[in-house]
Description:
It is a single chain. By secondary structure, the chain is an alpha/beta fold. The protein has a single domain, classed as 3-Layer(aba) Sandwich (Rossmann fold), CATH 3.40.50. The chain is about 40% helix and about 15% strand. It has helices spanning about 1-20, 85-90, 115-130, 130-135, 145-155, 180-185, 190-200, 205-210, 215, 235-250, 265-285, and strands spanning about 35-40, 50-55, 65-70, 95-100, 140-145, 165-170, 225-230, 255-260. It has an eight-stranded mixed β-sheet with strand order 1-2-4-3-5-6-7-8, with helices on both faces. The relative contact order is 0.12.
Amino acid sequence: MIPILLSALLSLSCVKQTENNPNAPEKVQPSDLKEWIIKDTAYGADKNQKMDIYLPAGRTTSTKTIVLIHGGAWVQGDKNDLNDFVTLFRVRWPEAAIININYRFANGSTLILKNLLDDVESAIGLLVDERSRFQVSENIALFGASAGAHLALMYGYTNRTKGKVKCVGDLFGPARINDWDWYINSGVIPIAEWLQKMTGSVYNAEIYKAASPVEVATGNAPPTIIFHGVLDPLVPIAQSKDLQSKLNLLKVPNEYIEYFAGHGFSNTDYADCATRSVIFFKKYML
């Protein structure tokens, strides 16, 4: 009689906990779906509008997705640059889907920031449109490196997301494009040239401000985890610190982690970034 009574009390307790916490994630049983990897899927007509899709075994319509955006100063680079992160995330969160995207390169005229963000939107749009076939949810985390982190932040902080982007991972991304000292004191690194191609303009305070995550962030910005090297010679660490300060002011959940590194980390540090990102993403991707 006592075991039966105890069982009933435990059962009642579980029901009450669920009722009292409507935001508690639903326990969804894995499906019998097999792993599905689709390489170089086109999401547009341009040769660079392609992405790799990694759908895990056992996925359901509750499966979360991490979208990876490579760096390359907005003018070069390739999704294969983030293949190590594909592996790191798949090992640490095998239940998540991964999308690793390419995008068109900025040229200062016909292709500027807006068009690069259009590519991010199109890639995510394909995922959302096909979510029933892929068996994934609409809940997305963006994770970018360098210029890709800038794109992730800009996309996540603007009204393009329609609530689908739940959090952002920022790997040493430029956060303050309207940093005049950065623009003119880049030494042998052609910062000004890259920024002109990305914005479509020589330095213009308003245009560069509108392209700065730290300037466009609002209280509705998704939770953000930021990683930066204290020795970074390319993107000033002050930009990530400014972003953290802005998010704190806006009361947007965030984490900020520094490494004794430059613009690029050791394999050990990258593994730590992936581990911390997965913990952060799971926390905010209900």
